[in-house]
Amino acid sequence: MQPSRTIEILVGVFMAAGFVALFFLAMQVSNLSSAPSGDGYRLTARFDNVGSLKVRSPVKMAGVRIGRVASVGFDQDTYEAVVTMVIEPQFDSIPTDTFANIYTAGLLGEQYVGLEAGGSEDYLRDEDQIVHTQSALVLEQMIGQFLFNKAQEGAQSL
Amino acid sequence: MLTPLARLGRAGFTALAHLGQAHILLLAIVRGVPDLLPRPRLLISQLYGIGVLSVLIIVVSGLFVGMVLGLQGYYVLSQFGAEESLGIMVAASLVRELGPVVTALLVAGRAGSALTAEIGLMKATEQLSALEMMAVDPIKRILTPRFFGGFLAMPLLAAMFSAVGVLGGYFIGVGLLGLDAGAYWNQMQAKIDLQEDILNGAIKSLVFGFFVTWIALFQGYSAPPTAESVSRATTRTVVHSALAVLGLDFVLTALMFGG
Known about the structure:
The structure holds two protein chains of two kinds. Chain A is an alpha/beta fold. Chain A contains two helices and eight strands, in the order αββββββββα. The termini of chain A are far apart. Chain B is 87% helix and 0% strand. Chain B is built from ten helices and no strands.
């Protein structure tokens, strides 16, 4: 009886260690702790160009994450990108004239939506649209523009 | 003239027959579940043999694989000035690929071969026939607990492998190479998805556990009762399991992450 008892305890320890490892992976390694709770209210914004913005990209205000991008769609009539964001419910006082930009974290980092608060007294609600938007800066375009300007300067000075 | 063709045909039919036998055996094993439920002790002793006794090799390999990933990843990432992303690299490679695959290969080598040899010898020494004489179904009594022991132990072992590997990468990255501990965990948490990465990795190791144990049991059960055949069956278990794991890994990866 005694050896089988030891085996039972060891198996119990094994199962517990396995689940602790899974729990560790879920909590410490994955984004579960910072995952969107699902509830929250949705805002949409239209951009001429979203760059490489993706679903689950962060939505930040003053550098603090207040939500995530829920979907990036394309409007065939206006040829604009439609970005739907889920904002966490406690951030419920975003003015209606808020400005939405697409920024890049660092030079080559991931892109995120940055919101800049306006001065309006009215707040955005569920399913509202952010009217003022600015597209993503596409690095290649900027470099191209820069080179073009330099070339023009060079041509004028001749 | 026709002999090579006939031989080819016979080989094909033999392979098909083995495939059929393997599935019939699987069906018989699964049919033993109702008889297993009232006797959890049978399952526990198999979990001990397959799971607990494999923990040491899994933990040590996981630690070393994680440390190697830390060193190699740091070398590559530092070329791009992206050393801070080491955490993502270590965790993603472990959770998605190396954890399930290396665990399955190690378990096939350590526990799968043992299963085959044990059952092959039980058959060779007519222990299985003796059980049958006592009106005990050897498949239900011997094979079913072993099958579910391997099936359940595999994802837990893979999770331990990944968890220890992430810690090994942490020791190397943060302890030895002087990365920022916050960056290591933060970047990892920002990019590793519970469903996309960890759940898919767990599904992978469940599938591998299923196939590795199935192959081991079938090879042992179908081996002719001689010493030579049992030794051959043991070799085949390791070879077939490794091939099945690597092939399935490609299919699963294409299904999960290919889209």
